[in-house]
Amino acid sequence: MIECLTQRIELNCIIPAVRIEMISILEKSGLSDAEISRRLGITKSAVSQYKHHKRGKHIHFSDKIEAEIRKSAKKLIEKKSASADAEISRIIKMLKQSRGICKICHECKK
User: Fold this and answer.
1) Which of 39, 49, 63, 109 has a CB 3.0–4.6 Å from the CB of 54, allowing a cystine?
2) What is the domain extent for residue 22?
């Protein structure tokens, strides 16, 4: 039996996938790449890499998690969140509680 290393899944799959979704939402709201990078706490080049599919992998999240990502992005747009990291941590916690992280682990291995 191969044991899932949750932290590795978070770092390599979940965080990049959430960022991809957030970047898309923030971009649709009219924010520039420079502003998106500030709000997410990542470099402008990282934003570009996510947008051009050179970084991260799209993950199919449940409808509930997708709604939470949209909610977090809205908080970032409205500057009502302390940080993107705090929002991503909240989403990861929800994934762990719902065991959704296991589904993502299997999806990332493909």
Assistant:
1) 49
2) 6-108
Instruction: Return the DSSP state at 51.
Output: H
Element (H, E) at 33: helix 33-40
Does residue 1 form part of some domain?
no
**What is the distance between the alpha carbons of residues 18 and 59, in angstroms, rounded to a whole number?**
8
pLDDT, one tens digit per residue, over 25-78 is: 999 999 999 999 999 999 999 999 999 988 888 788 899 999 999 999 999 999
Considering the domain boundaries, does residue 69 fall inside one? yes
Look at residue 48 and tell me if it is in a domain: yes
96 belongs to a structural domain:
yes
Structure tokens at 38: 């500030």
Q: Are 92 and 10 in contact (CB under 8 A)?
A: yes
> Looking at the 3D structure of the chain, how many domains does it have?
1
Q: Residue 39, exposed/middle/buried by CB under 10 A (0-12, 13-18, 19+)?
A: buried
Mean pLDDT across the chain: 87
Q: How many residues does the chain have?
A: 110
Nearest to 39 by CA among 19, 11, 15: 19
